[in-house]
Write a structure and sequence with these properties.
The protein is of the alpha/beta class and about 325 residues long. Helix content is about 50%, strand content about 10%. A five-stranded parallel sheet has the order 2-3-4-1-5, sandwiched between helices.
């Protein structure tokens, strides 16, 4: 249940904060150095906790299901908060992007609105998001360990989050679970997309896209569709991959494959062929979340076979031109 959400958040953390060339605005505002320890701690704790759920699964135990739901909801919330924080940076007063040379003029105005003060403000806002996330993750971990002890499971828990081997960040899942969350104000869009995926008359592989600015709920809406029982039962295979602004073809292929085993010596062409073969003959749903360019789609579109069986690719994007990718049955603009 929580796997898709947590892996998606892990991937966002890696793309936004661990990438060798992060967004210029993040560098400009020095958010990463200020929050480095918190970012690394959250990343490790998420991986640690999802491994506990994966390795010590107890089917039928209601308490475990409740904790998985809590973890999923925390991951959804934190990812949305991080995305909104980045959007706020871009939409902030243009003054933020002036060089330090102009600080003195502002200070003379006595407005207390200095460049450094705003950098600190945004850094502290991100710190609050990360600290709250860590507290929530720790609370879920503590509850999980209590449940495991109650059911007398022999738990071999690593001594610290740092002992966990880094997860591959894949957002794929073949068994997404249903969420009963009510999407206020999104019910119409939800039903439109659901029907486009499973009730559209065309049996050809179709591409459906959702376009709108960051932070308006594209990913949340898509997740609800992805986990809906009618969607899960309709498709033979489901894959979720986060693309984001820092496009990397090889990483996308690895995420779509959902495995890094025995691929070090494989070329991108080999990976593309493996992906194509894994989908061949299957009625699949592939979600490509946060696509920023046509190039991202063009690099992997040939990996999605068209077996005339109703397979679908669902894109979310902030960029209008991406709406023209592939054969689109219909696009949604929010």
């Amino acid at each position: 249940m929580a796997c898709v959400a947590v892996n998606s958040l892990i991937r966002i953390l890696e793309l936004e904060f661990f990438h060798p060339e992060p967004r210029p605005i993040l560098q400009e505002m020095e958010l990463i150095p200020f929050n480095k320890d918190l970012i690394q701690s959250l990343h490790a704790k998420l991986g640690f906790l999802i491994q506990l759920f994966d390795e010590f699964r107890m089917d039928g135990v209601e308490a475990i299901k409740d904790l998985e739901t809590k973890l999923r909801d925390v991951a959804f919330r934190v990812e949305d908060e991080i995305e909104l924080h980045v959007v706020d940076l871009y939409e902030a007063d243009p003054y933020l992007y002036l060089v330090d040379l102009f600080k003195e003029d502002d200070e003379e105005m006595g407005q207390g609105y200095t460049y450094e003060a705003k950098k600190t403000q945004y850094s502290h806002r991100l710190s609050h998001v990360l600290q709250q996330a860590i507290e929530d993750i720790d609370a879920i971990k503590e509850e999980l360990e209590k449940v495991m002890m109650e059911y007398k499971h022999d738990i071999a828990v690593p001594k610290s989050d740092d002992e966990l081997v880094k997860m591959d960040g894949s957002g794929s899942s073949n068994h997404a679970s249903h969420t009963e969350d009510i999407m206020v104000g999104k019910n119409n869009e939800f039903e439109i997309i659901r029907k486009m995926l499973i009730q559209h008359s065309s049996k050809q592989r179709e591409v459906v896209s959702i376009q709108g600015m960051g932070g308006i709920g594209k990913t949340t809406l898509t997740r609800r569709v992805y986990e809906d029982p009618s969607i899960v039962s309709h498709f033979d295979k489901q894959i979720w991959v986060v693309v984001s602004q820092h496009h990397n073809k090889r990483q996308m292929l690895l995420d779509l494959l959902g495995s890094k085993d025995n691929v070090n010596n494989n070329s991108d062409e080999d990976l593309a062929l493996r992906l194509y073969q894994s989908l061949k003959g299957q009625r699949y749903l592939v979600v490509m979340d946060d696509v920023w360019s046509r190039e991202s789609w063009n690099d992997v579109s040939c990996c999605f076979p068209d077996d005339i069986n109703g397979s679908r690719v669902l894109l979310t994007t902030r960029v209008a031109e991406v709406m023209g990718c592939g054969r689109i049955s219909k696009g949604i603009r929010e």
